[in-house]
Amino acid sequence: MSFDPLSSPLGRRLLLAALYVCEGAPIGYLWTALPTKLRAAGVPVEEIAVLGALLTVPWTFKFVWAPAVDALRSKRFGLRPWIVGAQLAMALTLLPLARDIGPADLAWLTPFLLAHAFFAATQDVAIDALAVRHLPLSERGTATGWMQLGMVLGRVAFGGLALWAEKSVGAAPVVFTLAALLVASAALSISARDHADEGAGAVSPHRRILASARLLLDALRRPMTLLGLALATLAGAAMETVAGLAGPMLVDQGMDSASVGRFLAAAGVVGLGGGSLAGGLLADRVARTRAVGIGVASVAGLTLVLAAGLDTLGITAVLGVLGLGYFLFGVLTAATYALMMDLTEPRIGGSQFSAFMGAVNLCYVWSVALAGQLVPRVGYPGALAFAACASLVAIGLLPAIRRRLESRPGLRSPLA
To answer: I need a labelling partner for 54 at 20 to 30 A (CA). Which of 122, 250, 399, 412 fits?
Structure first.
């Protein structure tokens, strides 16, 4: 009898962490390595920010097709066909990047990048649905920390380290390795013994999709869901702005792309990775809303420090502030995702959690796109300060979310 990783706490953490490695790897390459390469090649910051925002659009609106993922689960294989199919398509759409990229290549590459983003967002829906369905309440914070650690390792390996590797071996080996990792992840996904609910096959596919969509629409009308969406749209503004502009900002501070890559790799592993585990543990030991509040306030405060000192501090001090910032990013991300799981109805785990994650990605879209427009006008400090203030607004939403979680049947109030 084959081992089912979903049958034990450690198995669930390791499986979800491994799947998130393969979520983070393409994100690291497209959202960290590629923008830094483009900036080093002379592409304006505004164009880089617009491209990043465009690639986030499928992630923002993935809840539109998420009801199909929730409803059309194979009776025997559950969510696995969605995960495997999406990962194979992701590998194929990355292959055009296996060459040196310059400003003139953006136009013909964009359709491939958008297709990749669509399949990557679909994969994310299915993996998150798997997590919501199989993670007990008491494990969500810790498991989310492991998932984010996996995401970080993938992003670092194919974000910061990819910049360093491409200096020696070129783009093709890095892209082919990334595609091979996605194929390996598709094979790993088969080990998760997820199945459709009993009786699912008795209802026609279109009726199942409609039923799932109705449940999602009903959930989206509830005040608790609306508060969660507002929180997700605002809380990470400072984090997303700093992370989204870190590569171009350090290039403009005089660092070369290889040095930026080495720093981002170290900050990712030590900072984001350690922060994710710490944030997950925090979210399982104190009120989830309190953990999120600590994360938001800490990230916003550090962003204001960076904004105030960017033009006066030396590059060593700037790197130190950014390193601490990446640790706090991990804390905030893990705590926020655990809270969003608590707000999600398991029957529509893929759809509702995707709506929350879509709002998180909308935060990236508006904050990074706006920052890209603000930088030429008010400089990096002005853009960072605006994002920090936007994040602080989210703290005012937390008391109302906590009150509603405490009153919901089946959820213990200490986790609210």
So the answer is: 250
Q: How far is CA 366 from CA 91, 109, 329, 331, in A?
A: 28, 23, 18, 22
Per DSSP, the three-state class of 136 is coil
CATH class entry, domain 5-409: mainly alpha
**Among 209-213, 294-298, 404-408, which is the least confidently predicted range?**
209-213
Task: Return the pLDDT at 212.
Answer: 67
| pTM listed for this prediction | 0.73
Q: What is the pLDDT of residues 22-47, one digit of tens each?
A: 888 998 888 878 887 777 777 777 77
Q: Could you write out the DSSP letters of every residue in 147-167? A: HHHHHHHHHHHHTHHHHHHHH
CA distances from 205 to 70, 215, 218, 304, 314 (A): 11, 15, 20, 51, 60
| Greatest pairwise CA separation for the chain in angstroms | 67
The domain spans of the chain are 5-409
Phi, psi values for residue 229, rounded to 5°: -65, -40
